[in-house]
Structure to design on (86 residues):
């Protein structure tokens, strides 16, 4: 009993607000409701998935190209600097 929190009692709204009627006070306008988003169609989901796969493949191709260019640069550098030492 000592450590149990006590919840405050909440006042009940007036009966007019329960039935969806407009409040009599016009000093506080009702908040605007956002329109609901349309449901996702199968075509939209497929387009997003295909786009993700294509972008991932392009990113992988760029990464492989960058690695191969870096390796070619290292091989050429080692060949060119090895010729000056002889």
């Amino acid at each position: 009993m000592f450590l149990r929190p006590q919840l405050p009692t909440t006042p009940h709204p007036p009966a007019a607000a329960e039935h969806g009627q407009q409040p009599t006070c016009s000093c506080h306008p009702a908040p605007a409701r956002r329109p609901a988003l349309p449901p996702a169609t199968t075509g939209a989901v497929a387009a997003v998935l295909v786009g993700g796969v294509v972008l991932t493949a392009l990113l992988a191709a760029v990464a492989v190209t960058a690695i191969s260019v870096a390796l070619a640069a290292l091989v050429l550098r080692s060949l060119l600097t090895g010729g000056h030492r002889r």
